Amino acid sequence: MHPSGMFCAIPSRVGVGEPFCLKLRLLGEPRVVPPNCWWPQPRPNLATPFNLNTSRQIRFLDNCLPEWTGDLQISGDGLAGPATITFDGKRQGVYAGDHRPVACFGPFRWTTPGFHFLRITDPASGLSCLANAAYATPEPPAWRIQWGDPHWQTYFSDGIRAPEELYQFARDEGFLDFGAISDHVEAITDRQWDYFVAVTNDFNEPGRFATLVGQEWTNHQPGHRNIYYRTDHGPVLRSTDPRYNTLPKLWQALDGLTDLTPLAIPHHSANQAMGVDWELGWNPRYEKAVEVYSVWGSSERPEADGNTRPIRALGGEVRGQHVSDALNRGYRLGLVGGGDVHDGRPGDALHARSYPPQDHIPYPQGLTACLTPHLTREGVFDAIANRQTYATTNSRTYLDAQWRREDNRLVLSLAAASHQSIRSATVVHNGQDVATLAPTRDDGLVLEREWRSEPLAPGDYLYVRVGTTQDEWAWSSPVWQS
């Protein structure tokens, strides 16, 4: 059986000569993994009691080959390390007794600075793919790109899989650097909340995998907010609790938690049924970011304005509720991407395949790139709070948008790269596309450009939207003119 695809990840930003590993999973046709309630089976595992949600008919799928052994070839300009890697049938897999072709290989090193691409080839089948773009700095980088998804649901509300299973998948198969369960806490008890927090802390390993204590405040009228704490604890805040059932009450509750420095992130803002009413205002103390994209689609701008992934479910999108509308109101929000995954696969959702046939096909999940020196809970949280993030659809596009001020203008130094090839980068000024920048390499893999704005007024904002040839997107967080 030959693999039909590869899912892989390497660090997006490292120093020259710094060792790194290639995380790799070989793919085949997705198959249903039925629930298994046999008590002696170690957990987490593939077949567990939490693989099916009967009310929403979500099934847990696995798209990794059941087994595979063989050699793969590794190549790349400026790459030092093994030219061949081997799945030997023994040192692979995630769970006890698991022999699927999932493993980390290395060490590899980049020997020269600049953008690099690592290629993996199966000589037996001819299958070949590029890993995500990597940038090597001459010295150890002052900041790195940590990839994560801070928005998942569990079996305890309207998803599938238990908290331990979600974290293990995110880390070991979704190849994420950080993540967070932000379940609908209206569906869980106080004791279950304690359990969620404990599991989140158990999986928090600085330098390997960071977790945030999170929850979803699920009130359709003003719009959902995901609440995150910078620490290892925090209270549960349900929108069904009379103490927290309105936005003013939620803000009042958070005012009493200053030692936890909470964040409140709105999401799927453009949706008619459960979007965000921006007329209710913005809380600059807690609302530091907005989730611009998830499996629901993109809330950046309307479909009529060029959005290729508009929200179509539950009444579709509503004008006036997009992220661009919030920014035009003066709300200073960084941009993050999330999964809002319910299928038990954070980092590599098979959302559309996991559901029964329906009118709306969920989009692939989104990701958040945090620009931070260290992979820690505090580093990830602070990057989000300080708008040191960018959002992507299901692609680890490299995006470094550096801005400097020249009187009343802003000058952009843009470096972007994608293994899918970049179609273009667009500069957005106050919600309007004002410049289109083309790739600098003929193959489209790299774009390095400088651009200078027209004179700006106080409060004007700018950000960059990058599109690939496969219709994947990345959005930098905005910057403001004073």
Essential attributes:
single chain; 482 residues; mainly beta; Immunoglobulin-like; TIM Barrel; 3 domains; ten-stranded mixed sheet; five-stranded antiparallel sheet; 33 strands; 35% strand
List the topology elements.
Layout: E1 5-9, E2 13-15, E3 20-32, E4 52-53, E5 58-59, E6 61-64, E7 70-75, E8 79-80, E9 84-87, E10 102-110, E11 114-116, E12 119-121, E13 128-130, E14 134-137, E15 144-152, H1 163-172, E16 178-181, H2 190-202, E17 210-211, E18 213-217, E19 225-229, H3 247-255, E20 263-266, E21 289-294, E22 297-298, H4 323-328, E23 334-337, H5 351-354, E24 367-372, H6 377-385, E25 389-392, E26 398-406, E27 409-417, E28 422-429, E29 432-437, E30 446-452, E31 461-468, E32 473-476, E33 479-480
